[in-house]
Specification:
The protein has two domains: 237 residues, Type I PLP-dependent aspartate aminotransferase-like (Major domain) (Aspartate Aminotransferase, domain 2, 3-Layer(aba) Sandwich); 121 residues, Aspartate Aminotransferase, domain 1 (Alpha-Beta Complex). Helix content is 39%, strand content 14%. It is built from twelve helices and 13 strands. It binds pyridoxal-5'-phosphate. The site of pyridoxal-5'-phosphate has 15 residues, from α3 and α4.
């Protein structure tokens, strides 16, 4: 396989910068034999809660589980509807169905996130909850979503899998609903070297319920089984490594924003290219992804051109969830979602990119449109 001058992934670079502290953390956990729900999990949960500004953080096995367990905790009745978008990772919708809910999918806006008007229009007497997905590191319009949810008595569970560190109106994502579900998958804002996730909440009772649900349903203080739970514990080894990486998260966010500002400046105004919605006073994205869209139905040609220039790109949502026949969701009509899926790609953006690599990516894009 050809090596890209600007690859999409960056784990080797991140590991080599942190090699000693990561290996020391692994050594400590293994030599002490502390592998399940031990001190490192608690410390990482505490550090993550502080980073997000939430009262509690509960470590779980994946981002999917963070949503699934949050939905289990609100105890959906059969037929209860949960509104979300189709322009998301399959995990969001799968969590709804597997927790016993019925997904209602609404379209996104040009910023690739939930359209609050369409959310409001989709509410029915059976609606229980809404999952706004802060895709690509960009916040949803949370003040409107929260107001609509409150007016209709709906529970809000934020899907923050891609947006740790982002804010809306000065508020950190993951603190606004009953729960925020984070993925700690390797290529998220902060990632384990395997699967991991986190749920944040300000509700003491909800946190206690989640701690039981992730561990077969047991209340560890009393030994009572309080629900039929899952096995979804954040591994102590992952937590020990994540603890070493967490202090770097603020600077990673800054580096991503810095690269994004170069992209905005150098790629603006090209005919045939749409850039992401830029930050403003209210929306402070963290740029997990930098989304480019072509307007001439030539995304694949553009992508090949970038590959020839040594720039790797990613397209993970090219077939929207509601278009897969086996899922039974084809009755949803979501033109914006489909348009975005056909026209977008992710340009590399990550904290390990050098200025030179940013420049290569910029030149590669410009040379296609110039
Ligand atoms: C928006 C969104 N939600 C949920 C998930 C699920 O996270 P995980 O892969 O950790 O299960 C992801 C991750 O891919 C995601 O991008």
């Amino acid at each position: 396989m050809a090596r890209y001058r600007v690859p999409f992934t960056y784990i080797p670079a991140q590991f080599s910068r942190n090699r000693e502290r990561i290996l020391a953390a692994v050594e400590k956990v293994l030599s002490e034999g502390q592998v399940i729900l031990r001190q490192e999990v608690q410390e990482f949960e505490q550090g993550f809660a502080e980073f997000v500004g939430a009262r509690h953080a509960v470590g779980v096995g994946s981002g999917y589980d963070s949503l699934y367990l949050s939905l289990r905790a609100i105890e959906l009745d059969p037929g209860d509807e949960v509104i979300t978008v189709s322009h998301t990772c399959m995990a969001t919708v799968g969590a709804i169905v597997n927790a016993g809910g019925k997904p209602i999918l609404v379209d996104v806006r040009d910023d690739c996130n939930m359209d609050p008007d369409l959310f409001e229009a989709a509410i029915s007497p059976r609606t229980r909850a809404v999952i706004p997905v802060h895709l690509d590191g960009a916040p949803c319009e949370m003040d409107r979503i929260l107001a609509i949810a409150e007016a209709h008595g709906l529970t809000v569970i934020e899907d923050v899998a891609q947006a740790a560190g982002a804010t809306f109106d000065g508020r950190r994502l993951g603190t606004m609903g009953i729960a925020g579900g984070f993925s700690l998958y390797p290529f998220k804002m902060i990632g384990a070297y395997g699967d991991a996730g986190m749920i944040t909440t300000n509700d003491d009772g909800f946190a206690a319920k989640l701690r039981a649900l992730r561990n077969y349903g047991v209340d560890r203080e009393t030994g009572d089984y309080v629900a039929y739970g899952a096995n979804s514990r954040l591994d102590n080894l992952h937590a020990a490594i994540l603890l070493q990486l967490l202090p770097q998260l603020p600077q990673w966010v800054e580096r991503r924003r810095e690269i994004a500002s170069v992209y905005f400046e150098r790629l603006g105004g090209l005919d045939g290219l749409i850039l992401p919605t830029p930050p403003d006073d209210r929306y402070k994205p963290v740029f997990l992804n930098y989304i480019l869209r072509t307007t001439n139905n030539d995304r694949d040609a553009f992508r090949s051109h970038l590959a020839e220039q040594g720039v790797e790109t990613l397209i993970s949502l090219s077939r929207p969830i509601h278009t897969h026949p086996a899922l039974g969701l084809q009755h949803f009509s979501l033109p914006k979602t489909e348009e975005i899926a056909r026209s977008y790609l992710c340009l590399p953006i990550n904290p390990e990119m050098t200025d030179e690599q940013v420049e290569i990516a910029v030149s590669a894009v410009r040379s296609y449109f110039d």
